[in-house]
Amino acid sequence: MPISAWIMFGFGCIVLYGGLTVCIHMAYHHRNKMIDKDNQ
Amino acid sequence: MAIEREHWKNRTSFILAAIGSAVGLGNVWRFPYVAYQSGGGAFLIPYFIALFTAGIPMLVLEMGLGQRLQKAAPEVFGSIRKGLEWFGWWALCLGGGIVVYYSTVLSWSWVYLWHSIKLSWANQEELFFMQEILQRSSGPGEIGAPIWYMVVGMFLTWLSIYLILRKGVRSVEKVIYVTVPLPMILLTILLIRGLTLPGAMDGIRYYLTPDFSMLRNPSIWLRAYGQIFFSLSLAFGVMIAYGSFLDRKSEITNSAFITGLANCGTSFFAGFAVFSMLGYLAKVQGLPLPEVTTSGTGLAFVTYPTAITMLPALNSVIGIVFFITLLTLGIDSAFSLQEAFTAGIRDKWGGSQEKLTLYFTIIAFFISLIFTTRGGFYWFDIVDKWICDFGLVTVGLGQCIIIGYIYNLRDFKDYLNHVSEIHLGAWWIVAIRYVTPVVLFTILIMNVRAEIIETYGGYPRWASVVGGWGVIVLSVILGYFLWRKPIKNNE
Fold first, then answer.
1. What is the CA radius of gyration of chain A?
2. Which tens digit of pLDDT belongs to each residue from B216-226?
3. B182 phi and psi angles, rounded to 5 deg
4. CB atoms < 10 A from the CB of B205, how many?
5. Helix, strand or coil for residue B135?
6. What is the pLDDT of residues B91-134, one digit of tens each?
7. Which residue of A4, A23, A32, A34 is the best one to mutate when testing the B interface, meaning the one whose CB has the most B CBs within 10 A?
């Protein structure tokens, strides 16, 4: 497979799955913050 | 009529339901082909730009409207301006139309699931689909009687939809924990099987090798916007209905980002499962890959079954896995469309969820029988083309104009920022007011122009007038009727 195809593969993975990971992490972080707030 | 609104048990349920609605058959049978035809890996650039400048902004808009106003589409638009309620009904009627013909593909999948056991299509895949399954007539004018096994498939589809929806959000919540992750697992099985076959990497090379010169062609950019718009269940009122089942403090923007990214992530992933198998097929048939590459029903019911026949082992198992994948991908999208419609009815006239679901299911089942006839395939093709290319694009355009220019968009943005984890900037307003409407308007003009120049699919003009424009006009009339029909216990 040419190098340009590998680059696009990496690009797609970073944007889609990297982006998804960041968003899910934010959602969990926010949930934990809310739970801490409720416990106080 | 004011009735207590159901709410999702938690945010995960809402996000899974939204992903289930967005991720459908198009992710498997349309995206890989469009990407391959539009510059391979280079297509990802306009595709991502379309996702962030139209797809996610529209998801935020629809989910946010439902959550803020706690109503389905007709009442949402009716509360913006009284006369606009019909517009919401029109969107729901188009969505209702889609679920009626979409059920046809699920009916075929049931039939193929049965035939996977013995690989009945072996060595005559195209003939099997067109002649033995569809028993296709000479044209849309020759309809014939419903074909019994397709009626059984249709019955199973509508029975599944009824059972999933009869308790509303409560029963949907239970199902989505299975129907959303299951196709991902099954796609992984198909991918592993595909990657372990000779020729798989040739297929993936075709899928990913970028041709950046294609990006100079404006139609590639429009195709990227079209792909994003159609694959996110936008403009059917589904995301408004699902958003309305959230409580008022619920987060919106990050959920929309997760839904959009998960949908596109599934499409990208499915491309590897499809192209690894196509690479194998090209190799064993000794054909160049472009000759075996197809999309839509051709890919699902002819090309992929051909590849399954030629597998060295586990043919039936892979066949069963593939058709269960199609069924689980399609069923969430189908029931979300029906739920959007019944939510609109419940908001206006009340009534029990179970009864409304039953009535809708029975009526839709009988209408959908037209697609189980020998001429049904032609009508399926015509109705699909018109509802998507003309109806949906017009509703999407209207939605952007209504919310962008009549509703107080800045106040809405502040509201969303108040409840959400990701704060929206001016880019969101630009996307709703300018980018999306301009793109949708251009797509609409191009579609109308193409239809004027040449009748779609070579069908007789009367067929496109009846099944195409006729269905659009009927949805407008039905939308108007539902808007004007008074509430029984008017307060």
1. 17
2. 988 889 889 98
3. -55, -50
4. 16
5. coil
6. 999 999 999 999 999 999 999 999 999 999 888 888 999 999 99
7. A23
Q: Which of B22, B174, B24, B18 is nearest to B106 (CA)?
A: B24
Read off the pLDDT of each residue in B426-439 and give the average, rounded to a whole number: 94
| Digit-coded pLDDT (tens) for B463-477 | 999 999 999 999 999
Task: Show the tokens assigned to B79.
Answer: 């509360």
Distance CA B223, CA B350 (A): 41
Distance between CA B90 and CA B454 in Å, rounded? 27
- Global pTM reads 0.93
Burial class (CB in 10 A: 0-12, 13-18, 19+), A25: exposed
Flag if B44 and A15 touch (Cβ within 8 Å): yes
> How far B340 CA lies from chain A's nearest CA (Å)?
26
Q: Which of B265, B321, B465, B346 is nearest to B71 (CA)?
A: B346
In chain B, helix, strand, coil percent, each to 5? Answer: 80, 0, 20
Please report residues of A whose CB lies closer than 8 A to that of B11. 27, 31
Structure tokens of B489? 């216990």
Q: How far apart are the first and last CA of chain A?
A: 56
Per-residue pLDDT band for B3 (boundaries 50, 70, 90) equals: low
Task: Find chain B residues with C-beta within 8 A of A27's C-beta.
Answer: 11, 251, 254-255, 258, 421
Nearest CA among B301, B456, B296, B483 for reference residue B387: B456
ipTM: 0.93
What tokens were used for B479? 């939308």
Nearest to B268 among A1, A12, A27 (CB): A12
Greatest Cα pair distance, chain B, in angstroms, is 72
Burial B302-320 (b: 16+ CB within 10 A, else e): bbbbbbbbbbeeebeebbb
Best of A3, A4, A7, A16 to mutate (most B CBs within 10 Å, chain B)? A16
Q: State how far the Cα of B257 lies from the Cα of B259, in Å rounded to an integer.
A: 5
Q: Which of B334, B348, B357, B364 is nearest to B489 (CA)?
A: B348
